[in-house]
Amino acid sequence: MLGPDGKLPLPWLEAPLAQALANARSHALLVQGPAGVGQFDMALLLAQSWLCEAPAAGKLACGRCAACHLFLAHAHPDFMVLLPEALRESLGYGADDEEGGAEAKTGKASKAKPSREIKIDAVRQMLGFAQVTAARGRAKVVVVYPAEALNTVAANALLKTLEEPAGMLRFALASSAPEALLPTIRSRCQPVPLGLPPQELAQAWLAEQGVEAAEVLLAATGGRPQEALAWYADGVRAQAWLELPRRVARGESAALSDWPVPRAIAALQRLTHDLLRGSHGAPPSYFPPTALPKPRGAAGLHAWGRALQDAARHAEHPLNAGLLMESLVAQGQRAMRVAA
Ligand SMILES: [Zn+2]
Question: Which residues fall within 8 angstroms of residue 80, CB to CB, at 6 or more apart?
C-alpha cells in the first residue's frame, strides 16, 4: 500500500505497477509470477490506485486523499479482500477486521485449524458486497489472494461475477500458480506478469529491513526478497547458509536444528539442486561455488533428492522433527561422500 510519503512498500513494483495501470483493459487483472516477490502488495496497490480520489500521473494512488486514508486503515467501504483464513493475520487482515467475515468468525468460534482455502462463504459475502452501490462512487474493488486457494465451489461462484461484473466492480487476483486456476477464471482475467525483481533493488530493500549479508539470503531464496526476509525472520543467517553444505557433508544435523522443518528441508533441496548442477558442470543457483564441496558424480544425490521431496510433503507435521532431520542429513552425508 502506498502511504502519505508516496513511497512504495516494495520499490521494484514501481515499473510493473505503472505498466499495469496504463495497460489495464479488463475489469479483472491477474497478477502472476513467482511467490515472494510482492504479488499481494501489487494487487493492493492496483486496488488503492483504482479507488484513489486524487490519483497522480500514471493513475497511481496519491496516498493522501480520503479514499487512500480509508484504504490504509482497512476501512474503505468499496474494498474487499478474499484471503484464506490461515493468511489473514500474517497479512494484516486479522479476524477482527470488518471484512473478516463469516469464515473468520466461525474459525474463531470453533477453534478449528485456520483454513488454507478461500471458501464459498467468503465468495457469497463478496457477491453481496458486489451488489451494493459504490459508497464513494469511484469504483468497487475485490482482491483475491492467492487465487489458487479458491476451492472449486468458490471459484465457480466467483466465475459469473467475473464474467459480468456489476457497473463499477473491478478485480485484482494474484497467483503464483496460475496453472492451478480454473481455465475459465484465467481466461476472464488480463494477465499481469510480475517477475523476479532486479537484484540491486531487492538487496537494498532487504538491507533496509535489517537483513545482514542480504546478497547471500537473496541468492539462497532464488532472488525472491520476501522469501529471504521470511527466512531471516525464521532465524536463517548468511553465515549458517554458507557453512551448510560442508556441515551436511560432515553429517552435522545440528546445522539445521534451529530452523523450522519446512525451511530446513527446502534448504537441503536447494543444496541437492546445486550439487546436481555441479555434477553436470553447471554453476550453482543458491550457494556460492566456494561453499560447495566438489562433486564427482550424481550417484546418491538423486535418491537423496527423492527422500527430501517425500519429506517436504509432510514437512508441516513431521512425527519427529529431530529424527527426520537426522536421517535426511545422514542420507545427504552418504550422497555427498559418494559424490564429493
Ligand atoms: Zn489517493
Answer: 99, 125, 126, 129, 140, 141, 142, 143
Say if residue 185 is in the same domain as residue 240: no
From ligand 1's centre to the CA of 4, what distance in Å? 9
Q: Quote the ligand 1 centre to 27 CA distance (angstroms).
A: 20
Give counts: helices (H), strands (E), the chain. Answer: 15, 5
Q: Give dist(CA 14, CA 201) in Å, integer.
A: 11
Residue 157 located in a structural domain: yes
* 168 CA from centroid of ligand 1 (Å): 18
pLDDT for residue 176:
95
Q: How does the average pLDDT of the chain come out, rounded?
A: 91
- In angstroms, the CA 10 to CA 82 distance is 22
Tens of pLDDT, residue by residue over 112-163, are 788 999 999 999 999 999 999 999 999 999 999 999 999 999 999 999 899 8
Q: How close is the Cα of 129 to the center of ligand 1, in Å?
A: 22
148/32 same-domain check: yes
Let me know if residue 326 belongs to a domain.
yes
Residue 239, pLDDT above cutoff 50: yes
With respect to residue 215, please indicate whether it lies within any of the assigned structural domains: no
| 160 plus 250 within the same structural domain | no
Domain of 173 in residue numbering reads as 11-193
Domains held by the chain: number: 2
- Answer with the one of 131, 166, 193 that is the final residue of a domain: 193
pLDDT at 58: 86
Residue 89 lies in a domain: yes
Alpha carbon of 294 to ligand 1 centroid (Å): 56
Ligand 1 centre to CA of 162 (Å) is 26
Distance (angstroms) between ligand 1 centre and the Cα of 139 equals 13
Q: Could you tell me the three cell numbers for 125?
A: 459475502
54-72 b/e (C-beta count within 10 Å ≥ 16 → b): ebeeebbbbbbbebbebbb
71 Cα: distance to centroid of ligand 1 (angstroms): 9
Q: Do residues 242 and 177 both lie within one domain?
A: no
